[in-house]
Each structure stands twice: as structure tokens, then as C-alpha cells.
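Document type: protein sequence-to-structure record

Subject area: structural biology

Format: plain text, a pair of labelled lines:
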Amino acid sequence: VAIGSGIVDASKPHFQQLQEQLIGHGLNALGSLSETINNLHGSVTGGR
């Protein structure tokens, strides 16, 4: 158990960095997705 907890403690900063990167990528993906939806919506309503 001591060895396992040592490994977890050693990799905690790495996990935190990875989590922040994933959150950043997720926000970027959401932003581009909503932008795409806005563009589609604008072209649909503007085409009428």
C-alpha cells in the first residue's frame, strides 16, 4: 500500500495537468461547436 500511495503522490501533479488540459480541450471543443451551431442557425434563418 505504501508503494502504491507513493506512486499516486508522485503522479498527482501529472494527473492535475492532464485534467486541466482535458478541460481546456473540452472548452475549446464546446466553443467551436456552439460557433458552428450559431453559423448554421444564422444561415438557416438568413436564407428565408
In short: The first helix runs from residue 2 to 46. The CA atoms of residues 1 and 30 lie 40 Å apart. The mean pLDDT is 86.
